[in-house]
Amino acid sequence: MSCVHLLNIRFAHNGIEQVLTPVLLRDEAETILVDCGYPDFLGLLDGAARQHGIPLETVTKVIVTHQDLDHVGSLAALKRKHPHIEIIAHEIEAPYLAGMKKSLRLEQAEAMLDSLPDEEKPNGQQFIHLLQSIEPAVVDRTVRDGERLPWCSGIDIIHTPGHTPGHLSLYIQESKTLIAGDAVVVEAGRLEIANPQFTLDLEEALRSVRRLLDYEIEHIVCYHGGKYTNDVGQGLRDLLSRYDFGS
Questions:
Q1: Centroid of chain to Cα 118
Q2: What is residue 191's predicted lDDT score, i.e. its pLDDT?
Q3: Are 5 and 54 in contact (CB under 8 A)?
Q4: Helix crossing, 104-113 with 121-132: angle to 10°?
Q5: What's the mean pLDDT when you consider all of the chain?
Q6: What is the pLDDT of residues 170-224, one digit of tens each?
Q7: Where in this chain does the record put each Metallo-beta-lactamase domain (predicted)?
Q8: What residue spans define the domains of the chain?
């Protein structure tokens, strides 16, 4: 994993301590940030990057795994501060990131609001306002499933829909490392579906997990949970078996 640097960012959100794991990919020519956290995360990102000796201003590209708030909240601010950065995302996600299409997570939150218990509706409305406040960011380059990016000796784009329609994961061939985004998360030491109750298409998300078994993965890094330390293939198969989804 010589070109893969994990940024373990600890912070408080709604009074609860959380950890997110964006990733820096670096070779002789490029420094690539994968996902960029909530709004107002630039300071946290820079501090975490500098722990690896990589100042944030040296980033040349940002690859966005999908449109969710905790992955793109600081994207527009990052681009504004460092306009040389090239934003890369799956072609399905690009119009949502640019504000040309309404956020699917916002549509979901609005649709669920009336069904919430009265005591939870203020939090639901607050979440809607937060989603509405996310600043759009134009994608400079779109990618699709099976595309191979030349950096770090080869990065394969894997379309892993389900959590959102255009969710992507990244496979680093040299180190057999998967950057999973929210295709899977690590919870209590095992691989799980990220927030299955809010996953836009759970069966599609499970099919995406099944596809990951086609890759020789020795290391997997999840945005929520960080690096999974057990056997990856077995962890993926165990996840599928819990949903009775044949592997």
A1: 32
A2: 98
A3: yes
A4: 160
A5: 94
A6: 999 999 999 999 999 999 999 999 999 999 999 999 999 999 999 999 999 999 9
A7: 19-224
A8: 4-242
201 neighbors 171 (Cβ within 8 angstroms): no
State both tokens at 186: 């690590």
Angle among Cα 184, 212, 182 to the nearest 5 degrees reads: 20
| Tokens linked to 32 | 């690539």
DSSP designation for 3: T
How many helices and strands (H and E) does the chain possess?
A: 8, 16
b/e map of 173-203 (b: 16 or more CB within 10 Å)? eeeebbbbbbbbbbeeeebbbbeeeebbebe
Task: Using only the alpha carbons of the chain, give its radius of gyration.
Answer: 17
What is the C-alpha separation between 170 and 187, in angstroms, rounded? 21
Task: Tell me the residue length of the chain.
Answer: 247
